[in-house]
Amino acid sequence: MILGSINPAVLMAALMVAATPILLAAIGELVVEKAGVLNLGVEGMMIMGACIGFIVAVNTGSPLIGFAGAALGGMALALLFALLTQALMTNQVASGLALTLFGLGLTALLGQRYVGVTPPRTPKLDLGPLSEIPFLGRALFTHDIVVYLSIALVGAVWWFLKYSRAGMILRAVGENHDAAHALGYHVKRVRTLAILFGGACAGLGGAYLSLIRVPQWTEGMTVGAGWIALALVVFASWRPWRALAGAYLFGGVVVLQLNLQAVGVKIPVEYLSMSPYLITILVLVIISSGKARGSLNAPGSLNRPFHASS
Amino acid sequence: MRQPLLRLEGLTKAYPGVLANDDISFEIGEGQVHALLGENGAGKSTLVKMIYGLVKPDNGQMTLHGQPFAPSQPSEARQKGVAMVFQHFSLFDALDVAENVALGMENPPPLRDLAKRIRDVSEEYGLPLDPGRLVGDLSAGERQRVEIVRCLLQDPKLLIMDEPTSVLTPQEVEILFRTLRQLSREGTAILYISHKLEEIRALCDEATILRGGKKVATCDPREKTARELAELMVGQVLTPPERPAKDTGTVVLSVENLSLKSNHPFGTSLKDISFQLHAGEVMGIAGVAGNGQDELLLMLSGELVSPRDRVQLKGQPIGHLGPNARRKLGLVAAPEERLGHAAAPDMSLTSNALLSAVGRKRLARSGFIDWPTTEAFAREIIERFDVRTPGPHVLARALSGGNLQKFVIGREIELNPDVIIVNQPTWGVDASAAAFIRQALLDLADKGAGVLVISQDLDELLEVADSFAALNEGRLTKVRPAKGLTVEEIGLMMGGAHDMHPAHEAAE
Questions:
Q1: Looking at the complex, does the CB of residue B86 fall below 8 Å from at least one CB of chain A?
Q2: Residue B99 has pLDDT above 80, yes or no
Q3: What is the spatial distance between Cα A173 and Cα A156, in angstroms, rounded to a whole number?
Q4: Could A172 and B86 be called an inter-chain contact, meaning their C-beta atoms sit closer than 8 Å?
Q5: A121-143: burial string, b at 16+ Cβ within 10 Å, e else
Q6: Which of B234, B268, B287 is the last residue of a domain?
Q7: Confidence class for position A45, pLDDT limits 50, 70, 90
Q8: Distances from the Cα of A45 to the Cαs of A28, A77, A138, A229, A248, in angstroms?
Q9: CB pairs under 8 A between A and B
Q10: 3-state DSSP call for residue B365?
Q11: Domains of chain A and CATH, by start
Q12: Count of H helices and E strands in chain A?
């Protein structure tokens, strides 16, 4: 029995680690899209976070400062996107794609001297007796602080969107920007802030890859995690908790295929490593096939440029 | 004389190439219902946007209660007691009623208290509303109630209403007027924007008329006839369309017991539609927006296909055919949405002419477009239908609403159809262009075509239609001769006042 050699508790723990980067990026993008902006540059902002976070962490010796730097790096790229799409009124899809290419290229340059360097270790959070609980302790309570932070962030975003006035304004701007403008809300300001938040989250997600999950810096190391995060937002039909569930599902597929490879299941490695992406495509096809309720939940002004015509 | 509430002095606002408002002054008294009249482009919207703080005037000043009033943004105007109900509702489909109301308030109470206040206020003014429902599921009349209740909750001193009745049945209008009169008695001034003259004569104490950005008159609308007001507004003598009496011919279009599901999640499905349209007949179809008008047009134009025999053109089954095939057989249609449905916004007028005429006018040969002929065709439309534009190379989006509508309708009429279906042919079109379009449709009917006009403008339907029916929640009433129908009867055909009830009298 080959599958018997996979320990479910370890699998669960690995799954949460694998899911955290895409969860962080997805929750940021969810807020951006709720404000009516489609930023396809998630991959670019993630790799930027991965690179800047790595550089800062190596030079300061502190992973936490590294994460802060990663958030700023992601935000810097997001600011560029906001400038292009909100002030200069460029096309969001084209700008987002350009952002991804720009991020990949720039980080290859910045990170050149850091290939092969080992980053400072991020300590596990000491949860005392909790981590001693059989199975659950191993699966849920042996992680670093960022994993718990990402879950808290999902809760915070959920509360913000559902109960706070600012969240209601953000949803209103994404739903019908002309009406929001007519009522006197600052559409561009709200959107710019949302884009910056999305950039910070994507940056954190990237840094999680380079500082904890891998932990190494290599060129183009995000390998499509940003695209999976984008698909995840649609999969979750713009609901935060569903994004969490989706991220763990994708994380599960990633970890499982790694485990299957390790125990030598007789499926060619190529098929196994393409499986998360295949599932991404499958999910997108099912969801966009029209009849699904999910498509109704899309923000009304998504990807429509706003120009105040007074 | 009542105390002046808001005084405008010399307000001027210029946009590149246009002087939208030129030195406009007038006063609104406390509790006064003041009409602002003018054609599209006369500067009404710019003026109210200045009062509501969305646009800053270049020149001139406003005083409210004797204090200088220069709101830099809508929230400031709202704080000082100015509220506005927009023409294209400023509502959010995916949010519920309470959230929509909260978004329009400065300091909304927690949503639970707000829901209760919404219920109270809507009861008091006879505008029932359920705060928990999604706005996307509401009818046009209910959406308007949301807007009004949102304003009333802020206890406004001045309520601006931009064309509020265009989406209501006559009975709903009556109830709205009672609400407005009640507000006026309670001391709230109302600035009422409209181009429906009879309404203004029935409701308003005073009217200010704008034309081309300038004020042309302030008068008491009850002392003028509708005709006089219209001529002040347009600046020229209007001739109503001519209608020689005539017999109708054979049946050109018939629909039998057709039910069809809407293709839109918030749409209205058609239920058991039957009617016959004769050669030379103009049939008017009334109804409040969202009762199946769009679906009816799609079904007749061929964008939604139906069972083969249920729709017949001159005895020939066409239910299963698409728009191009129907066009070739002689049935053409002009939908309501000009930009994006009737015309492609970013294509030239020539290309737009090609798109619908290519089959019937043979504008393409063995797959290649005959551009010179197409351009000549576009030029012909522009000339015959008096489309004001530099030439056929201009993009459709660059034309004003009225001009594009003349082009779109003209394009279909030039195809010499046997049947033409138009939806809201004069919506947002100025009075002289509207008269022109109506006359063109009547001329086409005189030549023996069947004309089906779907419209929410009752005056328009009564002016052009020989026969009359109404759509109500996807059902079509029996077709009746238009002659002798009263507005009340039509209102009942349209579904009456739904669940609205009159406001309680203030004396209670």
A1: yes
A2: yes
A3: 20
A4: no
A5: ebeebeeeeebeeeeebbbbbbb
A6: B234
A7: very high
A8: 11, 6, 32, 12, 21
A9: 56
A10: strand
A11: 3-122+130-294 (1.10.3470)
A12: 12, 0
